[in-house]
Amino acid sequence: MNTKKLTILHSNDIHGDFTPTIVDGKETGGVSFLSGYIQKARSEGNTLYTVAGDMFLGSVIDSEYKGLSTIELFNLISPDVATIGNHEVDYGVAHLLFLEKCAKFPIINANMYITTNNARLFTPYINVEIDGLKILFIGILTHEVLATTKQESIIGTFLDIKEAAKEISVICDNYRTTSTDLTVVLSHIGYELDIELAKILDEYAGVDIIIGGHSHTYIHEKTVVNDILITQAGTGTDQIGRIDIEFDENRNITSMDYALVPINEDTAPRDEILDNLIASYQSETDKKYKRIVTRLARKLTHPSREQETEQGNLYADVLQWESSFDIMMMGSGSIRKTEIGPVIEYQDLVTNTPYDDQLWMIEVTGAQFRRMIKHVLRPAAWTGDTEFYQYSKGVRIVWSKSKGDFEEFKFNGEDITDDMRLRIGIQEFHYKNFDEFLGVPLAEVSQNRRPRVVASSINNIIEEYFSTNTNLDAKVEGRLVVLD
């Protein structure tokens, strides 16, 4: 029998995780071992490597070179196809288009477009042929994870998962032929939305696999919804997803197996070319980023974005300290490391709070603030599909999930009344997406007082405070308590 085998390897949300760490006594992760595993798999048979978004942001190497270093590293790894994630636009859409020109591998996306004429920014799909097998890849990203482009109104995406499903069907109807053996969607919308997408996709579109990203979900077991395999490989380079497919003599799929494979010194050889390139970047960045800024009293944690955390309290307090506003609402997702300290180097500051945007002040009534926080704490908050916040000192919120209401709602020990006026500090990203993230129209809030920028750089404030203070500490103290 003339059967064929195909292996698809996939990564997502790498976020500049370029260098290995020691886990259980073994060197683990890093692009050198990742590349070594991919090259070994390619030498053993028909193998394709894909990236489902968010290669950028997370390391000082990526930040210093604004993604160009990442593109150069992955040019050497040579993905067969990649799609974009929400963080690919963090350096601006124009810069992303420049980086795409620098990439020696195809980057696809079906639904980012110019709003004035609906022209797509990227090639929406690619047909890859290997050993006579023809694979159609489609890239997809929904509005829910592209809030950053609100700062560039000329760029848009299709609004929701239903429109994304329709666009996939359009591409399949036009470019999937009788010679197509496998159809793969590279998505960057999150695991839960991947499941919803699989449920509503037209069965005649013929999608076989959704390789996802964005939610950092580690899928260890084979997950099939509506006869579509759904995969995702967590975050970083400590692991890689592997799909092994077998076709019969008529090129029908006879088996499809999935595994999440650890990347370490036991499973992968080093790629010395990648090692040398990383070393050259690191020697340059170390000069700037290895200096010590301060020392904390102890290690501070940020274990989950959907709860009050030690780091969240520290950063919110730093930004509110000696400010012109009453409460800082720090975006939980703005804090990227689960723990920092006790020694803080400059690279820790840059990589832990990489979104260095302006700081805005708005004024709200107590009633509006109540509506805002009630919106933030709606049921979707606990599935990672919404924005969540850390609050500066003086805030006391006790929320009952079962009742969907507040048990306590106080500031500086007093109940927040409807007619009270509160000045709130928020980051520009959250200001630009105010209506969606906080559930109250910005136009309504702006009638209280005209919003204004009170600081041009959040990281300037953080760096100055850290540089001039030592032995900093913060504890979880009940600023936000969630019951049930």
Architecture overview:
This protein is of the alpha/beta class and 484 residues long. It has two domains: 280 residues, Metallo-dependent phosphatases (Purple Acid Phosphatase, chain A, domain 2, 4-Layer Sandwich); 193 residues, 5'-nucleotidase,  domain 2 (Alpha-Beta Complex). Helix content is 28%, strand content 29%. It has 14 helices and 30 strands. The strands form eight sheets. It has a six-stranded mixed beta sheet, covered by helices on one side. Strands 9-10-12-13-15-14 form a six-stranded mixed beta sheet, with helices on one face. Helix 3 runs antiparallel to helix 7 and helix 5 crosses helix 6. The mean pLDDT is 92.
Write the layout of secondary structure elements.
Blueprint: E1 4-11, E2 21-23, E3 26-28, H1 31-44, E4 47-52, H2 60-64, H3 68-77, E5 81-83, H4 93-102, E6 107-108, E7 112-114, E8 119-120, E9 125-130, E10 133-140, E11 155-157, H5 161-175, E12 182-187, H6 191-200, E13 209-211, E14 223-225, E15 228-231, E16 239-247, E17 253-262, H7 272-289, E18 292-295, E19 300-301, H8 310-320, E20 327-331, E21 339-340, E22 343-345, H9 346-352, E23 359-365, H10 366-376, E24 389-391, E25 395-400, E26 405-411, E27 414-415, E28 421-427, H11 428-432, H12 434-438, H13 442-446, E29 452-455, H14 458-468, E30 480-483
Helix pairs in contact: 3-7, 5-6
